[in-house]
Design goal:
single chain; Rossmann fold; 3 domains; four-stranded parallel beta sheet; globular; binds 1,3-dihydroxyacetonephosphate; binds iron/sulfur cluster
């Protein structure tokens, strides 16, 4: 059973609604430049396509040649070359989400994965500097787990409609309405929201996290569709919030039925941020890494990837014998991260991710609880 609430905290089915108009992304305050003072700014490297760059990036082009035409490589390669050199010089690592473009995912990332894998990598990191190839909540999570390290995001405007849908104040109101009911917060939220939560979850461990309390009811916010999917996998009653991912909410069951009619053998793989009628059509529902593993292990002939568009390009490079049908919805926030902005981050050490220490201490507890949950 699912109860969905909105910002007025009026029960309808129980889902709870955000007050902020979708698309109004608040640009967080830029960093103070502490990292630039600590490590120093470097000269911008020359960005030339020459024999040395061609030779030293040839092995990387091999990984992306199925999705990047040869005529485009001379534009990417000088950045790839410069970024890989500067990462070593700075003792920096680049953590890239599965939705990053193929040249970032395959050619400059040190670690790639879903939100949970990136958070775990951030926790283990020995680097001085972490650069997040992803959106702001992911960079905040890395900073929570590495309070003494420099964490940079190449574009501070890389937000998320789910993170934008709820505030810490909303969570306090939910707690007043449901005293004693544990609060599970999706990692796609701000540090303020995490700070008001008992534990975080991602799409790959949400069911396990919800069941970890042993209670009959759990507040699972802010993604209504993820919460509705979790409710189909557990006996725990779920109280949800009416937040949605602006990328996944656009898919429809109707379009998937058309793909299935055209080819009944096609495999439909969906992310749990999709609406319930989409999930109902799917052969498999899972996190971005769950989808990637499904394709790598089951080697389906044809798949429809019902998630952000770059995933299909990244998976394609690793599964050359699978044909991908791409209903192409791009995440505009993920796409703010580009090779030139990553290079700027390494040269000028911007934009620094900062979190109020009092908020960070509480939010860190919720993230660490999730990371240390026994599977
Ligand atoms: P994953 O944790 O499955 O990678 O999802 C993160 C995300 O933002 C999906 O839209
Ligand atoms: Fe947020 Fe959706 Fe983009 Fe993921 S795809 S970062 S949930 S807006």
């Amino acid at each position: 059973m699912v109860t969905v609430l909105d910002r007025n905290i009026r029960p309808e089915v129980e889902v709870v609604t955000p007050p902020v108009a979708r698309g109004e992304f608040v640009v967080p305050r830029p960093g103070t430049g502490a990292a630039a003072k600590k490590f120093g700014v470097l000269p911008m490297p020359k960005l030339e396509w020459n024999a040395e760059v061609e030779r030293e990036t040839a092995h990387l082009y091999e990984k992306v040649k199925a999705v990047i035409p040869p005529v485009e490589w001379p534009f990417h390669a000088p950045y790839v070359h410069a970024i890989n050199k500067l990462k070593k010089q700075r003792n920096a690592v680049l953590l890239a989400h599965n939705y990053q473009t193929p040249e970032i995912y395959n050619c400059v990332a040190d670690f790639v994965g879903d939100s949970l894998q990136l958070a775990k990598e951030a926790a283990k990191s020995k680097a001085d500097i972490i650069i997040q190839g992803g959106v702001h909540f992911m960079a905040e999570t890395s900073k929570l787990l590495n309070p003494n390290k420099t964490v940079l995001i190449p574009d501070l405007r890389a937000g998320c409609s789910l993170a934008q849908s709820i505030t810490g104040e909303d969570v306090r109101l939910l707690r007043e309405r449901y005293p004693g009911v544990p609060v599970v917060t999706y990692v796609n939220t701000s540090a303020d929201v995490k700070a008001e939560s008992d534990i975080c979850c991602t799409s790959s461990n949400a069911v396990q996290v919800v069941e970890s309390f042993g209670t009959d009811r759990v507040i699972c916010i802010p993604d209504e569709f993820l919460a509705r999917w979790v409710a189909t996998q557990t006996k725990v009653k779920i109280i949800a919030w009416k937040g949605h991912c602006e990328v996944h909410e656009r898919f429809t069951g109707e379009e998937l039925r058309r793909y299935r009619e055209a080819d009944p053998t096609v495999q439909i793989l969906a992310h749990p941020e999709c609406p319930p009628d989409v999930i109902a059509e799917a052969d498999f529902t899972g996190s971005t890494s769950g989808i990637l593993n499904y394709v790598k292990t089951k080697k389906p002939k044809r798949v429809v990837m019902v998630t952000e568009c770059s995933m299909a390009d990244n998976v394609q490079a690793e599964a050359p014998n699978t044909e991908f049908i791409r209903p192409c919805n791009l995440c505009p926030h993920m796409k703010r991260i580009t090779l030139p902005k990553i290079l700027d981050s390494l040269v000028y050490l911007r934009e620094e991710v900062e979190i109020d220490p009092a908020v960070a201490a509480k939010a860190r507890r919720a993230v660490e609880r999730m990371i240390h949950l026994k599977s």
